[in-house]
Amino acid sequence: MKKILVTGGCGYIGSHTVLDLVGHGYEVISIDNNARSSHRMLAGIEKITGRKVMNYRVDLCDFDDTQAVFAENPDIQGVIHFAAYKAVGESVEKPLLYYHNNLVSLINLLRCVEEHSTPQFVFSSSCTVYGNPDQIPVTEETPEKPAASPYGSTKQMGETIIREFARVNPTRCILLRYFNPAGAHPSGLIGELPIDKPQNLVPVITQSAIGKIPPLTVNGTDYPTRDGSCIRDFIHICDLAHAHTLSLAYLDRRHDNPVCEVFNIGTGNGISVLEAIEAFQRANNVHLDYATGPRRPGDVPAIFANKDKAERELHWTPRFSLDDIMRTAWTWEQEIAKTAEPYPLRNFKFN
Asked: Which fold has domain 3-182+234-265?
């Protein structure tokens, strides 16, 4: 079996991708220091697949420890890099934390990829690289504008670093620009598990609905959109995870050619925050109380994907609907509520 290293394999997107890779015959190892993730995700993967995934509890900002993982696994054939801080609001408040963690970890990882001649590299990028676009939906050729947050800036810089790396190395690279991952695996055994106060809309909805946190606040109802709330492209986490498996297959097909390709991974449907709340209520027959409040720093009014390139070249098509997202997210929320300590909270405060 082809061995793939997944960084951030205990995280939300990483764990679902590990599961998809294992299901398609790959051998997977993970690097995750669990600073913002839970080993529970790998336990869930083992329950679903019957296979245990090795995790190295390593901080990628430590080059020697990262290098030791590659030395112990000389047969790594591909790397999928998720490990990064990703909260837009936090990045506005703590920009240096984000620049240091997200860029130093990437550089250290690429140094190891270069030294060990790892053939394939897939990068977890983001639609935030487009900034506040002049037109939507955005294509891979849409000009980048200044990022609206330090988090987005780290993704723009990360893409630049990888392009320059690929220009002088034989490693074939793919940059996947995600839109808004949400939902959980249909088994209810893995899903999004925020370590602190949730930053993404869907876990805020589910935690609010179950009573874990106060009623949610819709940040901004005066945007130039159809109902005044932000518009985003919500993609089911299992669809997003599968795009990574297909990316490795794409690189296998392009094995004779140096490549650094970019793909949007989104549904192509723009959904407003208020529409997402309504979808949750409809899909689960649950009433949700919410308030309205001021805009949140770092948010752009609207963005969603043109997915034509991913469909054409990766042979990727999303299978799950918005209602599926909301149903699986709610199933997961109810599942983790059954445990004695469902949330490993740290500095959990509300304004």
From this structure: Rossmann fold (3.40.50)
